[in-house]
Design brief:
about 75% helix; about 160 residues; mainly alpha
């Protein structure tokens, strides 16, 4: 039972994290949109780098990037909360039922991993060279969140068996 509860609590914790992220992205909209704009502008990357042709100067495109990230975070957060509740609802079910209830958590954590790996580490960090910026780099945070979501996913998919702690 303890392991089952811990899996649900970790999903809730990540759901809470995403709730705070969405709150901050919408409550302090301008700061977060500014971050995205600077990443796309590549205006604080190394001077003279040969990747500057990739920079996007359109405020509308920056807003689309930002809006898509926030929507992705909303969906991921809601799915994480829902997945946690599904596990809680199935705490006393048999192992097969509990293991099947993990499916939504797997989907939510996969969405999280895809956001950090695709949007932040691949597109932001590598394509727009965010790693070169001292002022507008989210590389460290993205790496940390990717690792956390990956560990939780690996723990979640470990099969639960009858009579487990």
């Amino acid at each position: 039972m303890t392991i089952r509860v811990s899996k649900a609590l970790l999903l809730f914790a990540l759901g809470f994290y995403y709730t705070l992220v969405v709150f901050n992205n919408t409550n302090d909209y301008n700061s977060n949109l500014t971050f995205v704009r600077h990443v796309l502008l590549m205006d604080t990357t190394f001077p003279g780098n040969h990747g500057m042709w990739r920079a996007i100067h359109s405020p509308a495109v920056a807003f689309m990037f930002f809006a898509n990230i926030v929507c992705w975070e909303i969906v991921t957060g809601l799915l994480l909360w829902w997945a946690g509740f599904r596990l809680i609802r199935n705490l006393h079910a048999g192992a097969a039922v509990f293991n099947a209830a993990k499916k939504l958590g797997v989907i939510a954590l996969t969405l999280s991993l895809l956001m950090w790996l695709s949007a932040f580490l691949s597109v932001g960090n590598e394509w727009f060279l965010m790693w070169q910026s001292k002022e507008w780099s989210g590389e460290s945070g993205a790496q940390h969140m990717f690792a956390i979501a990956a560990f939780v996913l690996l723990y979640l998919v470990m099969p639960d068996v009858e009579g487990q702690a």
